[in-house]
Amino acid sequence: MPMSRVLRCGLLAAVAVTATACATLFPPPTVEIVGVELVSLGLTSGTAAVTLDVTNEGSRSMDLLGLLYELEVQGSGTEEEWTRLAGGTHAQEVELAGGATQRVTVPVPFEYEALGAALRSFLARGEVPYRVQGEVSVKGLGMTFDVPFRSRGILEP
Q: Is residue 135 part of a domain?
């Protein structure tokens, strides 16, 4: 086997072992929306302050450096109908002890056009099912890496 191929196989194996070790040491956090407050309104868009409870499901403490998120709401039709409400990044360092929950407030810009699905869902159900997914940047064991998360819940205005 040529040396470059051996090197590539070795690198792939090292990456796979590192990813598995990180997932074992830092299981994905759970993220739950616990509050939404309107901050500002413009002609076509606005900003909401979304309060999240981020729970460290692992036993090791972790330093959260920030998050990349995608927030979707369920439409009033089928359970498979999801509409993107907002997405973005938020940089805020938070130390999260093992098994602990930290409350974090994230400014979330939104377009009025995207609020239609949330409004229809609220009018049809009296609640707004949501799902939020993304990655949390974590610093631990002298390394920085991204841990994916996915969570669902219901906003009851």
A: yes
d(CA 52, CA 66): 13
Q: What is the pLDDT of residue 157?
A: 65
Say what the pLDDT of residue 24 is: 56
* C-alpha–C-alpha distance, residues 83 and 65, integer Å: 28
- How many domains does the chain contain in total? 1
CA pair distance 28, 9, nearest whole angstrom: 28
The rounded average pLDDT for each run of 10 residues, N- to C-terminus, in the chain (157 residues) is 45 41 65 84 87 87 89 77 89 90 90 81 84 86 82 80
Name 136's bridge partners: 67, 147
CATH number (domain holding residue 97): 2.60.40.1820
Number of C-beta neighbours around residue 56 at 10 A: 24
